[in-house]
Amino acid sequence: MISDLTTLLFFPGGLSMLLAGMAFTWLDRKLLARLQNRLGPRWFQPLADMVKLLAKEEVVPAGVNRLLFVGLPVVALAGALTAVLYIPLWGLPPAASFPGDLVVTVYLLSLLTLCTGLAGANSGGRFSLLGATRTLTQLFAYEAPFLMALMGPALVAGSWQIALITAGINGRWLLFTQPIGFLVALIGLMGKLEMPPFDAPEAETEIVAGALTEYSGRGLALFYLGRSVEMVLGLTLVAAFYLGGLSNPVAFLLKTLGLLLFIAIVQSLMARLRIDQTVGLWWRYGALLVLLQWLVLWGGRWL
Amino acid sequence: MHTNEHTQKAETFIVPIGPQHPALREPGHFEFTIEGEIVTAASVRLGYAHRGIEKGTESRNWVQNLYMLERICGICSHIHATAYCLGVEQLAGVEAPPRAQAIREMVAELERTHSHLLWLGEAAHEAGFETLFMYAWRDRETVMDILEALTGNRVNYSANLLGGVKYDVTGEQASKIEQGLDYLEERTRHYLDVVTSDPVFIQRTRGIGVMTAVQADRLGVVGPTARASGVVRDVRVEAPYAAYTAFPITPVLAQAGDLEARFVVRLRELFESYGVIRRILANLPPGELVLKRMPRRIKAGEAISRVEAPRGELFYFIRSNGSDTPDRVKVRTPTLCNMASVLTLTVGRHLADVPMILVGIDPCFSCNDRGLVLKRGADHEHWTWDRLRQIGLDYYAGERGSGGVGGTSISPAPLPPCPPALLTGMHV
Q: Does any domain span residue A147?
């Protein structure tokens, strides 16, 4: 009982995850800033942002469903924190595991995007509505290729259970045998986190802050935290699947940070894609390339 | 000013951009009717930053006005002062010495460099290309440093005087400018390469906001926006002023007329600027910086002064009644000429292209805002100054309650207070 509570509230879930999320957010912002010839935030900036946002009044716009408005950020963060339990954080075996937990995890990770979309549609503002439309459009664009990319290692290991997949990979670097899957998974993660060049849903020069325009205070803080947690989870998942499965925590952390550096570089290199260009990119190239990867994998089996 | 009313459906979805919006650095109000992501109609309302500068000139003397007009625009301040000085000199029947004219041109070209680099960053930011934004603005610091070394100021250089300029160029400064230009030239070449070869960026610029030469001519666009559509419209070439006869430039043209062409034209213009600055530094005419005597009262008459600001043609009309203050100063900035093209070009495009098309003309709202037309249904009568004043007083009296302003509020509502919704359109 006490050990279960510790798992949920402190490690690997709960508090440690929130701190890790903020640390990763800081590192992402700092790396991006240095690549863009800026100074970037100080190390405690994400924490300071959270403290400030949580302390501020949460303004609920008139005419919205109050329960949804307040509840959606909580669900979004809860979804991300639940997914923590099934993911091999820091290279350690996941805290919980059951057959098929890969699908559940991917679903839980999508909850944040879904909640963001609903929150935007619920807010009623024009920018929120447009942002919500774009968020959900983007969800349909990257989600399938992302899931398909994560299934590549699952095919190799012959299981849908994350613990078994990482065990089945057994130290092999699938990055070299499935480079397309690796790239699609990582870029899909960027789409999920609405990072440039996939930041059309929150393009500030067009629709202010997109779906979250009306959010302030606690709700905004929870959405931000959810996104931070999801960044750690996504990077962990890709590192575990494509960069040699479980290993000692220090080596694993280094691999995760390497991936973070990679996405920071990609973010700094590109202009924002229009939403129709994003959708086109994912379905014209992302999905087809992953399918190609699958065919190669299947073909390889018969050889 | 211009409204395309395609939509009569009740469920039109209008995206308001401005007066406060992250895409705008200055207040302006746009309404874009969209269907899905496609813009079907666009309208603009300007005038939020009307500062009454033209009226203000009438209560200041000729010299004081120089400093006020320079503050019309924070980016192209020098060119405003130049236009004014040239106009006043024309009225007074004098001409600044050749050395002063050359220095005027040099500062103007340095200003163009700073303005175009600033615009490059701004446009990259609208496209979500933050890295280019940061790098362009970092390199812009070089030209800001040059301007500071030359005149002591980064923004309002105050280089002009009636009948000349205030600052000379020393040999030391000249070599510093040369060094800066070398660096900027190398960087500009790199940026030109980026905007014409980066595949993601090209997706956002190539073939977007295409304006044909015919359209450009009909819409009356000016400056780089016109030149990107293949229309030769450059005051520096058509009607050379200052030292542009001695140190000419070649107008930079592009035929495509899309956003990419606007990037290319502005960046290639920088090379022209670097070249002409180098030539001026090498062949700076000797002589005085300023006329020995510039009259304090300017002869009665009218003058028109046109110059090429970084954004396009800047127009000054100056009328003197022979006193030490102008009778009328009228300023038309290039943004006004280009604004109509934004409304035309955004219709039928994606909402995501709108900020790009808007920034493509390099808009400058507060330079542009001169006043408002008060529209009241079919009431087209011309209001006298006294009546306009009374409306203003009543308007603010109504806002502040029954107190009134200086006791001038006589009846509760001789004219109904004018809500902002009635302040439509824009008057030049």
A: yes
Examine residue B386 and state whether it is found in any structural domain, yes or no: yes
Asked whether residue A47 is assigned to any structural domain, the reply reads: no
Q: Does A272 touch chain B (CB under 8 A)?
A: yes
Residue pLDDT tens, chain B, 428 long: 344 444 444 467 888 887 888 778 788 888 888 887 888 888 888 878 888 888 888 899 999 999 999 988 888 889 999 999 999 999 999 989 999 999 999 999 999 999 999 999 999 998 888 899 999 999 999 999 999 999 888 888 889 999 889 998 988 899 999 999 999 999 999 999 999 998 888 888 888 888 998 988 888 899 999 999 989 888 999 889 888 999 999 999 988 889 999 999 999 999 999 999 999 999 999 888 888 888 888 889 999 999 999 999 999 999 999 888 998 899 988 988 888 888 888 888 888 888 888 888 888 887 777 665 555 555 566 667 788 788 788 877 765 544 433 433 333 334 444 444 334 333 33
Name every chain B residue with its beta carbon within 8 A of the beta carbon of A268: 130-131
B284 lies in the same domain as B412: no
Q: Do B130 and A268 touch (CB under 8 A)?
A: yes
Q: Is A118 on the interface with B (CB under 8 A)?
A: no
Show Cβ contacts of residue B104 under 8 Å, excluding neighbours closer than 6 positions.
Answer: B78, B82, B85, B96, B159, B160, B165, B242, B243
Decide if A196 and B16 are in contact by the 8 Å CB cutoff.
Answer: no
Q: Which chain B residues are within 8 Å of A35, Cβ to Cβ?
A: 131
Of the candidates A130, A199, A205, the beta carbon closest to that of B23 is on: A205
Task: Quote the domain boundaries for residue B418.
Answer: 379-423
Test B352 with A203 for CB contact under 8 angstroms: yes
**CA gap A201, B128 in Å, rounded:** 12
Domain count across chain A: 1
Asked if A36 lies within 8 A of B125 by C-beta distance, the reply is no
**Partners of residue A234 on adjacent β-strands:** none
User: Is B374 inside a domain boundary?
Assistant: no
Question: Which candidate, B305, B316, B192, B196, places its Cα nearest to that of B256?
Answer: B196
**Cα–Cα distance, B426 to B428 (Å, whole number):** 7
Chain centroid offset of residue B254 CA? 21
Whole-Å CA distances, A120 to A113, A114, A128, B128: 11, 10, 5, 21
CB < 8 Å to B138, chain A: 37
Judge if B304 and B219 occupy the same domain: yes
CA torsion sign for A173, A176, A178, A181 is positive
**Is B61 a member of any domain?**
yes
Chain B residue with the nearest C-alpha to that of A195:
B128
Å from B90 to nearest chain A CA?
44
Q: Are residues B408 and B320 in the same domain?
A: no
Encoding tokens for residue B120? 């490059």
SS3 (DSSP) at B121: helix
Q: What is the pTM of this model?
A: 0.84
B276 and B383 in a single domain? The answer is no
> By residue range, what is the domain housing residue A275?
58-298
Residue A124 forms part of a structural domain:
yes
ipTM: 0.86
**From the list B125, B135, B201, which residue is nearest A205 (CB)?**
B125
Chain B: residues touching A (Cβ < 8 Å): 13-16, 21-23, 37, 124-132, 134-135, 138, 198, 200-201, 203-204, 350-355
